[in-house]
Structure formats: C-alpha cells, structure tokens
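notes to self, project folder thing:

trying the whole complex as one job this time. last attempt i did each chain seperately and stitching them together was a nightmare. two parts in total, labels are on each line so i dont mix them up again. if this works i'll redo the older ones the same way
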Amino acid sequence: MSAGLAISLDAMGGDHAPDMVVRGADIARQRFPQVRFLFFGDEARLKPLLKDFPALAATSEIHHADTVIKMEDKPSQALRGGRGSSMRLAIDAVQSGSAHAVVSAGNTGALMAMAKFVLKTMPGIDRPAIASFFPTMRSESVMLDLGANIVCDASNLVQFAVMGNVFARTVLGVREPSTGLLNVGSEELKGHDAVREAAAILRQANLPGRFHGFVEGDDLAKGTVDVFVTDGFTGNVALKSIEGTVKLYGYFLRQSFGSALLAKLGYLLARPALNALRARVDPRRYNGAIFMGLNGICIKSHGGTDAFGFANAIGVAVDMVQNGAIENMKRDFDQMMTIPGAVTGTAAV
Amino acid sequence: MSAGLAISLDAMGGDHAPDMVVRGADIARQRFPQVRFLFFGDEARLKPLLKDFPALAATSEIHHADTVIKMEDKPSQALRGGRGSSMRLAIDAVQSGSAHAVVSAGNTGALMAMAKFVLKTMPGIDRPAIASFFPTMRSESVMLDLGANIVCDASNLVQFAVMGNVFARTVLGVREPSTGLLNVGSEELKGHDAVREAAAILRQANLPGRFHGFVEGDDLAKGTVDVFVTDGFTGNVALKSIEGTVKLYGYFLRQSFGSALLAKLGYLLARPALNALRARVDPRRYNGAIFMGLNGICIKSHGGTDAFGFANAIGVAVDMVQNGAIENMKRDFDQMMTIPGAVTGTAAV
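result (full assembly):
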C-alpha cells in the first residue's frame, strides 16, 4: 500500500450509483486531501464520470467489476454468485491491504454477509453488529445493534457494549464513554433475561468510561448515555421510529407555516433558523452505519442517499482508520476476555 | 347501577394527585355531561377540593380509601397489601358494576396486576396488553403491546392484533382497520420466529379490515397501518423513542428561533402556527393507555400528566364504554377461535 489513506468504494451500490458515489467521493476529497479512492464498478460508466472531476481522478483508481449486487438479492445469493461484483471486489481490497476501509450504499444483508466472509470476525467476538450515531439533546450518541442480530443473548450484548465504546472514542471523540442497555424501565428487575444478565456482567466490566445501567426509549433523544446497546430487532425499530418522527415533525412544521399569511411571513424571517434546524436533524449528516467486530472497516451508506450523505459515510470510514478503531477494539477485547460471561464461545446462536 | 355512565377514578394516583384528578374530571364533565364520577381516595383531601367544583361535586361520589399504592411499589406488594388502596377500590367498582370503567395515573405494574386479578382476562386471551394511540402523517394509529409482555410468541401477537383491531374501530372510529406487524424489514423472511408465525396466522384470519403484513419503525410516523402489533419490549422502546424525539425536535426548534433577531421576529409572527403544531404533537392529547383483553375497561394515564391530559384519559374510557369495546372484543374473539394457531392455551409463557 502506498503512502496516505486508501478507501475502496462500491461504485455501483445505491439508488443513485454510480454518479452519486463519484460526486460523494469528490466532496470527501476536498475534506480529506490525504485520501485516495479505489472505485470498483463498471469502467465504461465510471471513466466518463470521473472526467468531470479531474482532481478526484488524479487520486483515484478505477477497478472494473463485471456484476452488481442487486437490492433484492439474498445474502446467500450474493455470497455464492457475487465474487466478481463491485461490492465484493471493494471488500476484497480491504482484505488484501490495498485499501484501509470500504464504503458501500448497496444491499445491507449482502454487504454484511460478504464482509463477514472476507474480513472475518475479530477474535473474541461472536457476531458483528451494525452501529450508527445520531443527534441528541446533549450532543451525539451511538446505538448498536441496528439489525444484524435479531435475537441476542447476554454475551452478544456485552460484546456490542465493547464495540460501541470503541466507536464512541474513535468516531465521536468521547474519551470515557457512558454506556446504557435499552430496556423498558430503569429498575434492575425490568426486562428479559438477556438484558438483566448483560447488565450484571457490564457492572463488573472494566471498560473505559462508566456503565450507566438500563436506559429507556426516550433516553435516546436525551442522549443520556454515549453508547446505547440493544438487540438488532429493537435497535432497528427504534432508530427507524426516530427517523420517521423527525420527518413527521418537519412535515407538521411546514403545514403549520403554510396555514396563515402571518405565519408565512414569519417563516420567511425565520428561514435561516429553520434551515439550521433542518441541517441539525438532516439524516445525511448521520449517514454511515458501521459494521463493528470485523477485521477491517466496512461502512454501509443509506441506499437512497445523495453525494453529500455518501461523503459523510466516507468521513466515518476516514475517522475510524485515522483513530485506529480496529487496533483499539482488539486491545479492548483482550481486556474483556478476563470478565466472566463475556468470553467468546459462550453465546448461543 | 343508575342511569348514565359512571367512571371510577383512582384519585390518589399520579405525581399531581389528587388535585390534578379532580380538575381533570371537571374538564371531562364539561365534555361528557352524561358521565358520573366515583372518586376513590383520601376523603379529607378530596372533599375540600370538590367544593371548588360544585357542578362536578353534584355528579360525583367520594369513596374513602385508607391507603395509596406508591410509584415504587412492586406489583406483587400491591396485590398482597393494597386491598384497601384507592387504586384497588376504583378497580373493584368496575368489577361490582358500580362503574363502567376505571382511570388511574398511578403505578403501571400495580394497576395491571390488580386489574388482571380483579377483572380477569377475557376468554380466548392469554395475556392482556397495553395499547395507546398517537398522531401520524395520515391521522392516528394504535400500537400494542407497550410493555405488559416483554417476551411474546406468535399467539400473543395474533391476540394483540385482534385487540388492536377492536381499539381502532372503537376509539379511532376506523371501520375496517389495517394491521401491520412491526419488523426489521417488509420481506416475508425477515425477523424472528414469533413475527413470522404470527404473520402466517394473520394472513388467514378473517378480521374486519386488512392485514398489511410487516411494517418497520418509520411506518409508525407515516401511519402506514391503523394497528401496529409488536411485543411489549419493542413497543415500549419504540413509543418512548418517538416521544423523546418529539421533545428533542421542539427543543431544537426553540433553539433555532432563539438564535437571531430576525428569527425571533419570525417566531412572534409564526407563533399561532407553532402553537398549532405544539397542540398537534402534545403528548397530553394522546394520554390514556388502555389495558386490552380484560373483562372491563381500565385506562392508565401518564403519571406526570396534568388535568388536561387526565381529562383525555377519561375521554378514552368514555369512548370505549359508549362504543361497546368489551362486547366487540368478545365477539371478535369468538370468531378468531376458529383460526388455527390463534387458539387460547397454545401460547408459551
């Protein structure tokens, strides 16, 4: 690998690929001049696109891929038949050392299956998890798992807590992150066995930062803790509930302003403030879900995002590489191995 | 029972009881002049309070209760030691036929345990569920369970679907409600066994309305279906996530308007519109969670609500009584008994 930092891109993944990927990379290039890009995809489409961005083209390579993983492909199909796909080759580049991280806006299930197969799960981790960060009343927090693991036991949750801790330090820049387990109440007796057992283990754990205990759904927006740990079913529903509510509120707000003349004038005067608000809750700012627990950095962008959102997903990848996320996680897991109940191999499947 | 409609009130439940309960009942009285109220609680405190509301006093009875269930009491404690409590006596009034429904802003777990013990679960239902309705982009929807059942199997979810269907017809006034099962994706293969099996059963079921299939977290705000069915863990986290996000957005909105002079002027002009928005997402408007599946109507108000919110919880009770919620549910359950997999007694505990 040459000097600098290389990011491999699945140029064909996402609703607006490959244009959106190339434009997103160009935005990221301006923010991170030290980064080189490896585009994997249809050379005949990528070459003319890159011509419009000479500065990007100068720090990029195009690697032709014959096929594309479709959004409706099953993970098993992608694994079997997707060896020559843009997604697979982009992941392979991380495995071979040609790139430091991979970013794709393609099929989530296929990306997880292939990344797990190629990069392998880190020692001490039973299952990788999907993590993402979001705005809170306090600042920003991370939640995981967001859908990779539908049913989780206590060991899985404990491992997610370690991964989330590393994420908070690496990407959010929190030196001593606080961690909470999502539950239906804050009392020790609340919830099902998995959360209660995970809490018992985490109370003894020696992670950097503090274990807060149980937190509830409304703590997500409050930002009560830096790291929210939950199973993939609950996390997926909670995050999408929040995203949907932000959209609903924005819709109600527009309706309110549209309803009277004075309100319309008020809207014009307040527009800069409202634009600032919109930017603050803009889902594109929080684009970039991270597959945690693999021997390599793999970032999943929203499939429907635009170039601005995709550039932010690249930004997450750059943060993780520059702050040594993988090395931090390996070190923390070695420490965690001494905690009873958090040892690998005890987790049920 | 004398003519008209009687509601029994746990006058001592909630952070601001008994004042809030009395004031809330007076607001409800103006909306529902046909309703009589039975206050259960400390007579020495209630008598002077009711003096300030002569019209309310004229249609109310005070029944003295010696004790109060505290917010931190365990359900088992409440069951054993709470026989003379305001909460228990208010529930007993429904069982004895003195009242048509009970409303309490007290301890949720204790209320559920006592209501289940006194009113008993309806034939055909394994476990009662907590339901609530909320604003959506389309109109209003109901979700259940919201925390009574942390772990649910397919039969539980199917029974929740029937209860939610009745709720949508009775309280929301939807003649043919659509129903969806919360999941991490809309494809048939997504999710864990319980949701997949429940979906298979509901596809054959002959409920009034339509079974939509799987829905996701962002469908809650969209109002994709009238009835959202899920386990109590996921439902509790999702609803609180939404409530927290609404508060966060309001906070961001105030911050945006506070940041510049022109924005402040815009805020003044837009204030009526913003007040309308606030009213639209006001959690007090959606106060009143319903314990579904019991042989009687029991409504749980938020513990921290004010008189306006409590009056809305009473309104939900009145709607359910007037629209025959219990009779509807019994009839629907008789029909459901013919559906394979939805039969009572097959549910795991």
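what i see at first glance: The domain at 125-286+324-349 of chain B is CATH 3.40.718.10 (Isopropylmalate Dehydrogenase).
need to look closer tmrw
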